[in-house]
Amino acid sequence: MELTSGSAKKRLDWIDVAKGLGILMVLYGHSYGPHNRYIYLFHMPLFFLLSGFLYNPRGSFRDFLIRKVKSLYIPFVGWNILILIGRLIPKLMRGNLTSGIILSTLKKIGGVLLTLDKDGDYLGAIWFLGALFTVSVAYKFLDVFIEEGAYKRLFITALCFIAGISALYITLPYKQSRVLILSMFYALGYLVRLHWEEFWKCFTWAAGAVALILLAWIGMTTRADLGNNEYTSLLLFFFAACLGSFVTVWLARMIDSGKSKLCVYGKRCLSWWGRNSMDILIWQFVMFRLVAAFQFWMEGEPVRRALKERIYITSGGWWITYTAVGILASLLWGWLLRQGFWGKLLKKIYLVR
User: Fold this and answer.
1) In terms of Cα–Cα distance, which of 195, 207, 260, 267 is closest to 15?
2) Can you give the residue ranges of every domain in the chain?
């Protein structure tokens, strides 16, 4: 489907830039950058909007499920289980491995297999993959098994909104409320795609400036915590999520179409980050430990504390280092995982792409 007067490649360029901006904001938020509360209003809805935008209704449910298992479920489950088992090895070597620890780990693995749980210490952001797998497969299921009709798409979107709005008021176990909430934005993303020619005309400088001002105003008056399902204002949260996503796509469009050296270089970097956003998503908190270890070493503290304790000292400008290392070191590690014999093996079992 042509989304602009240009080619399909042009369309994918701005999507990669938008994903790059999104993953940069994720790192900024997790590094506790100044005023990061604004980021938490929309950074996850943004990714689900983009994912819904890219939804392809063609093909069978079986083929869709297989693709999502390979691209989302296996990386989510595989890396979680490897980390959880790897954390048992030091205990085994010290003789501290008890039946209670083993049972606790097995319970955790069971939650991972159901996409309900994750390793929160090293893979804190990986929940996104499990949530996106659940939402996208559920949406495809509805799309395939609901009979065709004039209002089918609106009906599916309404179902997602009913589930999401209900979840705003009911906090479910294992933070599953956010999965239902984000399903609204996934459905909204595909609805936007269906009417993209009309939406594309809205991405003007004036519209972007107004949206940015409104987002700044809402950010001063409301807070949002998707994980704990806590919001100062539910209505303002929804508006902020839509406005923040709009601003990000608007900015991505400006960068994509810009001819200056700054735009060209920015587009190159952001597109690279966007195409490899899964590496950053999975490994950012692992790379944060490297910065924490360096900080402990500078203070004369035992470096091993960085492995045992989740302590991130991001004040005094350190958030910049955390953000930069979270992006660049994750990309480097992702590249290394794809090299040589291990790279071929990991690709074959779909732990990397």
Assistant:
1) 267
2) 41-246
